[in-house]
Amino acid sequence: MNQYIFWIIFSVVVTFIFFVDIYVTDHRKGKISLKTSLLWCGVWISTALLFNIFIYFYFDNGHIKALEFLTGYLIEYSLSVDNLFVFLLIFKKMRVSGENQPLILKWGILSAVVFRIIFIFLGVGLIKLFHPIIYVFATILLFAAYQMAFGGEHEVEVDRNPLVRFATKYFKVDSSYHGKSFFIKKNGKIYATTLLLTLLLIESTDIVFAVDSIPAIIAITRDEFIIITSNIFAILGLRALYFALAGIVDLFTYLKYGVAVVLAFVGFKMLLSDFIEIPVVISLAVIVTVLTASVIFSVMKRRKEDKKKH
């Protein structure tokens, strides 16, 4: 089947589901419930898996491409979880209400899709143009793994953020509450609101995470279609995943260490790719095992803490 058909099918499916997601959640009054979040997490994950089956049966070398897609999707989705912990800190720091969080995430995710596509084409293009760049990407992954495991807790420094500094250079900021507005007009002048600054913080965070996630999936495949589709499926499900995580965040205590191990593994995989080829199925098995173990240990720790309390 012509790959253009795959692009059309993919674009139609994700656009339809994303706008249904936005319509359902954005027209609810109050904070999005855990039940609704988990439902939409299920919708996005199920759609990604169905698309993976579609790739398996209709793509050239479908069995290999399907493995690459699933492996890339798991990497991006697990990295997104750590990203969302930072979102929690940003919303708390900026005192954004639960009613306004879906709006910020919507625009943050849409802009993230654009940036990810640009970064993917740049990353794959650089490797095709200058193959040794893979060693730079591998080093980035290994450093990211170290930072995630031993770098301590994330900090939100609003005044040092370059996008926030750029915005405050050209606009005055009105910190009072103005509903869902990013800009307001007062006394004939345009003011930015704290919602705009929050959106810039969210977007700059995703750009930083993209520096880790794009090399990670390039270590699995160089197929732009597989990289982009697995990335976008993971990104577009972030809104639902965020509100689901906000309700069960304590169940992921050790997940960041699991993600760090995954980053280290794909970093070494890329570093050794010119000498040893690790099959995708082995990469998938390692990633699934590590992430599952980290979640199980997190749940066990939570149960032990609950028993001590009682």
Rounded mean pLDDT score:
86
Order of strands side by side in the largest beta sheet? 1-3-2
Provide the gyration radius in Å.
Answer: 20 Å
Q: Work out the helix count.
A: 11
Specify the structural class.
mainly alpha
Give the strand tally.
3
Strand content: under 5%
Question: In words, what does this structure look like?
Answer:
β2 and β3 form a beta hairpin. The protein is mainly α and about 300 residues long. It has one domain. Strands 1-3-2 form a three-stranded mixed β-sheet. α3 crosses α9, α5 crosses α7 and α10 packs antiparallel against α11. The model has no long low-confidence stretch (mean pLDDT about 85).
SSE diagram, text form:
Blueprint lengths: L2 H24 L7 H25 L3 H33 L6 H29 L3 H18 L11 H9 L1 E3 L8 E4 L2 E5 H25 L5 H13 L1 H11 L6 H17 L8 H30 L1
Task: Output the keywords.
4% strand; globular; 310 residues; 3 strands
Q: Short description, anyone?
A:
With 310 residues, the chain is mainly alpha-helical. The chain has helices spanning 3-26, 34-58, 62-94, 101-129, 133-150, 162-170, 194-218, 224-236, 238-248, 255-271, 280-309; strands at residues 172-174, 183-186, 189-193. It has eleven helices and three strands; from the N terminus they run H-H-H-H-H-H-E-E-E-H-H-H-H-H.
